[in-house]
Amino acid sequence: MYDLQTLKVKNRPPQEVVLDDFTASMIADGCWDLAGVKVSELGIDKAEKIYHKAYQHLIDTDLCWQLQGRIGREAVHLINLGVCHANTKK
Predict the structure, then answer these.
(1) Domain annotation covers residue 67
(2) What are the strands, taking DSSP E only, across the chain?
(3) Number of structural domains in the chain
(4) What's the per-residue H, E or C state across 23-65?
(5) In Å, how far are 5, 42, 54, 90 from 28, measured between CA atoms?
(6) In a domain, 7, yes or no
């Protein structure tokens, strides 16, 4: 479990978004604020890049297949679009 004290994220510049399992899953779930990312300050292009990187992290760690079904379906969609690539490290 996550301790609420460790979830307090200082405001950091968007280019410093560190994608760990928690942050990537929160972004994929639409909870950008819990991930410590302020979408209003990013702009569409930067937010889209972070969104794709979050999904790529979830694909690489196989977490997207263990979370809610819609997250796995979105991962498949992004792979089919060529935005993300399938995990071939197995």
Answers:
(1) yes
(2) none
(3) 1
(4) HHHHHHCCCCCCCCCCHHHCCHHHHHHHHHHHHHHHHHCCHHH
(5) 22, 16, 7, 23
(6) no
Residue 8 covered by a domain: no
**Secondary structure class of 17 (helix, strand, coil):** coil
Residue with tokens 């679009």: 81
- Alpha-carbon span 17 to 37, nearest angstrom: 7
Domain annotation covers residue 4: no
Euclidean distance between CA atoms 82 and 70, whole angstroms: 18
What lies within 8 Å, CB to CB, of 9 at 6+ separation is: 35, 36
How far, in Å, CA of 84 to CA of 20, rounded?
17
Residue pLDDT, tens place only, 20-58: 999 999 999 988 887 778 877 888 888 899 999 999 999
Say what the pTM is.
0.78
